[in-house]
Amino acid sequence: MWRFTAFEALLGPEDYNPDVTLPVHSSGAGRNAVARNARRSSRSRPAALKGRRGCERRAEGAMWGRLCGSGRILLLAGAARHCGRPHSRTQKLFSTSSVLSATEDEPTAPADSTTKVASKEGAAETPKQKLLKMIGDMKVEVTTKRKFQQLKEQEIKKQATNKQEGLHGGSSTFQNSAEDVQRSKPLNPELVQAASAVASSFPHNKEQAESELLAQLRRHEETTDKQRRGGTINICNVISEMTVKRQSPAQRGVRISNRISLEMDEDGQRIKPGRPSSHSDSGRSLKAGKRLNIFTKASPETENALKTVSSPTIWDLEFAKEIAAVTEQPPRNGFEEMIQWTKEGILWEFPIDNEAGMDDGAEFHEHIFLEKHLKDFPKQGPIRHFMELVICGLSKNPYLSVKQKIEHIEWFRNYFEEKKEFLQEI
Amino acid sequence: MAARRVGVSSWYRVLSLSRRCGRCSSTNTALGKTVENSEGAQEEIVLPRRKTWDKLAVLQTLASTVKRDPTAAHYMFHDDPYLMPKNSATARLFSLSKESGRNAAKYIIKEFPHFFDKILAEPNIPSLMPEICTPQIEGVSEEALRERINLRMVKASVDLFDQLLQAGTSISLETTNSLLDLLCFYGDGESTQEKESEEKEDLEESEVNASEQETPKRPPQRGSHPFASRWRENNNAERIFKIMPERNAHSYCTMIRGMVKHGASAKAYDMYTELLNDRHKADVHTFNALITAVPFLKDRFLERWELIKMFLNHMAQQEVQPNVQTFNAVLKTLRRCGGVGRSMAVPVIKEMEALEIEPSLATYDHLLSIFYRSADLASSGIISEVLDDVEKRSFTPQDPDDAKFFISAMQVCCDLKDIKLAYRLNKAVEKGDNWKFLDMDRLNSYWSRFFSLLCMMEQIDVVLKWYKEMSPSLFYPSPKNILDFLQALDAANHLEMIPSVWEDMKQLGFSKRRDLLEEVLSLMSRDQHPEEIQLAFAKCAEDIKTVHEQSGRDQASVEWTGSALGSVTVLFSRAGRTQDAWSMMERFQQINRIPTDLVMDEFLNCAKQTNSPDEAIKLVKLAASLGLPSSQKLKSRVEKEFKLSENQNARQKELRAAQGKSRH
């Protein structure tokens, strides 16, 4: 948008082609349209100048043009159109400012030199201040007005640009321009009144006062021009923020930080306004689309070859820990707590098992049922009785292995074999 | 699995029993028949001589029989009824305290093993024994260095390495590499164990100093990187890397990973170019690290994407197969690439599919944040496709970011206000072991989002069902949840539930939150209700009154506001508790507030109903003393509606006279 303002400032005073004012009302969205209009207007400029030559009110228009070229675009629009079309309704507006406009013809040259003199005159002080204040106010009003009107007027404007190729366009354009002026009407009469008040307060030094006024206005023009260049960017920001906010009700829940980081990317460029991209998003799907085509699927052999890795490094260990921590949960009930204890090795393993911790490869029954080792002993009698007691004791002994138990029985067998003679004697 | 095993084996037993005796029993014909029919097939079954059990089978089966008790807090809080958490803050506090108690015990046994001389167990339990943290090998040798590296003693290892170097001993590449691993992982800082001992020294030196340092030096949080020290210029890792006589790919890779981990991305990239110049190949982890560093290397989105693509192409050239973490890293970087990310995310997913790499939950999490981070939330296409995929599979953790998926998915459901999606998501959470991805904090925020969505979108009875189902056992409602719940009750015209909600609020410790109190009071006092409801409301109001008036030793009591006072008065009046209402009326004067007309009207109604003209006169007096414009109206109402005794009439006249005076 501000690209245009530079252009307009260039054209401002001398060439009040009505087209020039049009893009002012176009919003950021219609940036292309602005450029298009600007181009067209520059093309049609010579014709416009020709048509305007001989226009009596040229000087007045120039003054307004200069005045408004900086900050008061709407006024410029009114003035410019007005001078192109002497009998329009807008003329009435300016007719009250006859004093001002009459003296404007030779304004610029002496302006600077007279400024200091004029500023000393106390009589002019209050109306002047009023005027200045109003100018200051106007700037604000115009900018806000611009913001609000943009959208509404954009279409009207487009129509206007289409029709207003030359100076003598159709009557519809005139209506539009009149409308514009009417919109800016609340400002105009005040300005005019103030100006006339200033003029009337200088019965003798009218011209001096006028030129002083003009100088002041020009100074204003310069500063506002500068500020507006900065200002328009600000306005752009304001508008862009407005668009952001307009989207936001849909996503009130999303945290602000998200919103900021999204709307303004780290590049500082703005992502193109959400709407157009959103449409492409809604049509997006995970199923459709092409792959990147960077990798080829590895054959199983190479995969296996890759899998032969050396001992895990500290990176692998810590990564494994981190992954395990993702799904680590405290136990939800007593049994789960027992599972955890079992894994830590704190708890006796379930099902409760007499053989837990005994790893001699022998089975339970081999430990307990030892009668089969008594085949070589007498079937009855005190020795048998004694041996039964021995195996009973052995079957209850958890500390000996099966082999040791058999050796133990073996020892008794040998013993009784050796003592057989003595025993038989008895 | 375990359950099935038990079931099957017992079924065999039944079968074999029935085979033995089934034929002779006439009652068991049906069973006998099936056995006969299938006998041909079952002939092969050989009963094992001995059944080996998984040591967890029985416990797992038993655990699967225990269901969540919706009225109870989490199992970890069952030890001590006094330490039952009331809200999410206390739950967090208590669970952390429990864990830190455990850590303290471990610390003691590790620091002072000589105090524990009766700890021998048969069989020995290694997990209860103190860890050995002191190096056993003395002297200067490569062996000793390796031991110190394994014990993760960063400083000691470096010192020993230097000593060895000075002595002119050559150190093998492998050992140097593992030393580099250690240095790069800890960023040349100290490992946690060493930090602890340092802290202890600080503590001994000066207690003031230590207490200051304690806060920043907290132990690393679970799942996140320990708060890493930054990569310093020419640190030990770089120094050792430079003086290494020979370097292999591993040395480069570990340097790159360390630099990325500790925030020296540009250096990591330079190191990668060095690696290429030395004609080595990087491994997949290094590429993953480099891809995560991309956002710090380039500013523009398109450049970032180009760099990612370059790394991926290098991987293909160097014949490095990507894994799921590679693609997660790509997507994580794409999260920070705005529009480019949105357009490139789908091709990345497609590439994964083509390589038959199963996405992990983190993949989906990144996808959601790429597509739903922007202001535009109109499209629900992506999330429902993601849910399609998630529903089909069960997940094991593969990426540290996996845990974030369910929360962000629920957030998207909330933003889209799509209750159906939320139900689908919740189904997916309950499936298999997926619930494990939500630890306690995440569980709380997941459910609180879900509950808010329910309050917004669902019928009130469904909301109530969910509320009963989840309230203390799954999550503790946040104040916002309660507010949402109250609004849902209001919308569904179920205001009679408010007393029970108030009970819950007291339980949760929200009884002093002014916003909630105001909401409860204004909802209760807004409309006239049937009598029993009014009585219940009045009880509530009394509770709220005590909340305002109790002056605890250390907690400041809530101050009355005009509207709260008015609501309580109205509630008392409507329940016919004239005395209580009057005491509230008096309080208006104490705190310099003015009762609204509605409050005074309600009070007068109450006075009339309970036939207590005294109170009515008192009210008129009060109104007059406050100089309210409505006092005239009240007075005439009192005169009209009450039969005043002589005495009362006199007082009324007095009042009028006083008023007249004050007017003149």
Automatic annotation (TrEMBL), chain B:
One of its GO terms (cellular component) is ribosome. PPR repeats lie at residues 248-282. Belongs to the mitochondrion-specific ribosomal protein mS39 family. It comes from the Eukaryota. InterPro entries: PPR_rpt, PTCD3, Rib_mS39_PPR, TPR-like_helical_dom_sf. One of its GO terms (molecular function) is rRNA binding. It holds the Pfam family PPR_3. It comes from Gallus gallus (Chicken). GO terms for biological process: mitochondrial translation; regulation of translation. Keywords: Mitochondrion, Repeat, Ribonucleoprotein, Ribosomal protein, RNA-binding, rRNA-binding, Transit peptide, Translation regulation. This is Small ribosomal subunit protein mS39. Residues 191-230, 643-664 are annotated as: Disordered. PROSITE patterns: PPR (PS51375). It is found in: Mitochondrion. Its main location: mitochondrion.
